[in-house]
Amino acid sequence: MRKTLLAANWKMNKTAAEAISWLNDFYGMAAEKAAEKDLVEVAVCAPFTALYALYQERQRLGAVMGLGAQNIFWQEKGAFTGEISAAMLQEFQTKYVICGHSERRVLLQESSEMVSRKCGAAVNAGMTPIICVGESISVRRGGLLRQWLEAQLYESLSFWDNQQEIVVAYEPVWAIGTKQAATTADAQEACGYIRQILRERAGDIADDIRILYGGGVTPENISGLLICDDVDGALVGGSSLDAAAFDKIVMAAVE
Ligand code: PEP
């Protein structure tokens, strides 16, 4: 049984003060109560400074929402200016780490080999990587979707021993930031391919791995995405910045 996961990806948005204010709004809403009853899992992947603020405020409120980071480095410590280690993230009970987001793959030339090393650092420290894969519009138009996903997954998963918990997020690059998600059929096709690829690699374990859809998710389109057999939740960017909108998205998964 795969529990639905709704993970917010705040990207480079929200100061610590704004994050605290968001959490106080969200805490009073239906989604936090649904997560308390274990009907759904909710996590917020925040900038590091906001993550620390959320950690403290979550303790103060007694909220159950999980915390996630948006990056990690594979070395334990040392001369790696600007990077963050697994131990630093663990210090404030970070559960998830987004690895291989297309914005990092494209803007910062993060390769799948680097993504795999980052995922390895996360799982070795007991955290769960949310591994992002997805195609550009030219790859899709060229009919290369399955090959693309296969290559990205194969290389990004070289750390994996088939046992550690992972989450895969299918994020078509052409849908990110648009408020125009993939259609139900397109989301199911791609997430179905991902499950097949995971099955070829890890057998029946593939049935336990959560695959999220991400890119243009809104309160209006989430229900259509969650009916797909192979979509087990969503990674939500822009629509998660507003607590009320994210609440509606989470509640659509509960209903
Ligand atoms: C993302 O980039 O991870 C994402 C889901 O963005 P958005 O929802 O804004 O398309």
Question: Characteristics of this structure?
Answer:
globular; binds phosphoenolpyruvate; 8-stranded parallel barrel; alpha/beta; 11 helices; about 45% helix; about 260 residues; TIM Barrel
Which spans of ≥5 residues are poorly predicted at pLDDT below 50? none
Strand order of the largest sheet: 1-2-3-4-5-6-7-8
Instruction: Write the CATH homologous superfamily.
Output: Aldolase class I
Strand content: 5-15%
Helical region count? 11
Bound molecules: phosphoenolpyruvate
Description:
The protein has 255 residues and is α/β, with parallel strands linked by helices. The chain is 43% helix and 15% strand. It contains eleven helices and eight strands. Strands 1-2-3-4-5-6-7-8 form an eight-stranded parallel barrel, surrounded by six helices. The radius of gyration is 17 Å and the shape is globular. The relative contact order is 0.15. Phosphoenolpyruvate binds next to strand 8.
